[in-house]
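Q: What residues go here?
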């Protein structure tokens, strides 16, 4: 009996020694495995939690939030080759810039047809003073000023009033009211004798010659880029015109629709 008891005691002591040796080994940092945390996994988990919070359920349909990608995609800028041309690179004044587009050919055409129309229309007892280059330049300048001050819908009698509180003194200093009214009445841009024939195939016949010269002047004055955007533009106009359109989305509503090629 004593022998059996001693054997049980020895077995229990041996087990205690093995257990203590295991505990001591676990305190050793060399034998303990190092736990490594993956930061990317944590960040992905956080992003998933944020995206889950940003999800919305509308009318039983879940709208899932998609986070931005981490890959930075390099966007290559399109090549830009826009520049001034030989005709425009030396321009320094406003007058020089204006004459790049409204050149002498256009001005001479307007003067010739305006004088012809006035000579045909004035009464025999009236005498028409021929419009020259200086006067037509002043006339164009007045139109630009009136448009600049947004006074195109004002009565001409009000624009030339002596009371400067309701008018601008520069208008009367440039040209008299009656002369401005007469030029505005008879100004023409084409030959009226052949207009009806040309209008049968071209709705822009009254302005076609001027528009063609103006377009060529634009091409000669600026070298466009190789990238652009085609957009529509409504030139506000409420006069008589066969191709006048109505666009409810535009501020002016009525006018002439023009397709333009725009460059950044």
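A:
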């Amino acid at each position: 009996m004593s022998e059996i008891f001693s054997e049980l005691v020895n077995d229990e002591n041996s087990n205690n020694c093995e257990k203590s040796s295991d505990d001591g080994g676990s305190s050793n940092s060399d034998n303990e495995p190092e736990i490594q945390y993956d930061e990317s996994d944590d960040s992905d988990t956080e992003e998933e939690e944020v995206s889950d919070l940003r999800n919305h359920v509308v009318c039983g349909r879940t709208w899932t939030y998609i986070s931005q990608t981490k890959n930075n995609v390099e966007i290559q800028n399109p090549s830009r080759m826009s520049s001034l041309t030989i005709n425009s690179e030396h321009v320094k004044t406003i007058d020089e810039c204006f004459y790049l587009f409204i050149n002498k050919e256009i001005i001479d055409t307007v003067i010739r047809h305006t004088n012809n129309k006035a000579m045909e229309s004035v009464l025999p007892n009236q005498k028409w003073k021929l419009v020259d280059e200086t006067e037509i330049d002043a006339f164009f300048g007045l139109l630009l000023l009136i448009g600049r001050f947004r006074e195109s819908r004002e009565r001409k009698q009000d624009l030339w009033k002596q009371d400067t509180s309701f008018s601008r003194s520069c208008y009367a200093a440039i040209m008299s009211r009656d002369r401005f009214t007469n030029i505005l009445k008879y100004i023409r841009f084409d030959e009226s004798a052949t207009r009806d024939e040309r209008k049968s195939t071209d709705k822009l016949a009254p302005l076609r010659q001027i528009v063609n010269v103006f377009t060529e002047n634009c091409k000669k004055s600026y070298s466009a880029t190789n990238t652009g955007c085609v957009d529509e533009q409504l030139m506000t106009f409420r006069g008589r015109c066969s191709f006048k359109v109505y666009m409810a989305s535009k501020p002016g509503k009525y006018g002439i629709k023009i397709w333009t090629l725009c460059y950044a």
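A: Context that may help when evaluating the design: The longest strand covers residues 254-262. Strands lie at 56-58, 61-63, 83-84, 222-223, 229-236, 245-246, 254-262.
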